[in-house]
Structures are given as structure tokens and as C-alpha cells.
Amino acid sequence: MAKLKLTVGNCSMDTEATNCMPAGSVFDVFPDSFMQNYTKHLNFTDFCQAIGCNMTSQDDLNKLDNGDFDSPIKAQSEFESWEDMVETAYQHQIRKN
User: Fold this and answer.
1) How far is the C-alpha of 59 from the C-alpha of 39, rounded, in Å?
2) What is the pLDDT of residue 57?
3) Quick one: which of 47, 43, 58 has its CA closest to 10?
4) How, if at all, do strands 5-7 and 20-22 pair?
5) 72 touches 66 (CB < 8 A)
6) Which of 51, 79, 80, 96 has the fewest CB atoms in 10 Å of its CB?
């Protein structure tokens, strides 16, 4: 299962570097076309606002991994959870490359 660790700023040494990316890079994983196909929103920023996740808050980004936003993710998209959304995005990236 794919795992994505979003961070505000640079990744710290205590995270798995291969799975860690600054929040700005999330737009590569969740491009607008992906968001429009699978969610009720035009882009990742709009989606985060709709689910109540502040992309500039490390605490909120950590809550994505903990499943705290799974209910609003389910309500605002075709996904059951953040983990499901990440896995689908990675599968799309693999098919593109």
C-alpha cells in the first residue's frame, strides 16, 4: 500500500525520506485532472478546504495519515479514506510513466 507523508517545509530526519514530500509537491501526486475525476473539487487546495484540512498546518497534515479526515474525504470524493486516495493517485502515476 502506498504511503505519503506530507510536510510543511523540509522533511525531518526522523521521517522516511522516500515517502516524505513538502505539501507543495502534493500537486504532482494529485493533479487537477485527478481531483476533478475523483472528487467534487477542481484541485487539491479546494479539496483540502472542503474537508477542513489546513495545508499549512503540520498537525492537520499528520491527521490525514491518522485517518482523522476519512469521513469528510468519503463525503467529498469517491474514496473511502486518505489511504485509498493515495493508493489510487500512485497507481495513476505509475500508469502515466
Assistant:
1) 23
2) 86
3) 58
4) parallel
5) no
6) 96
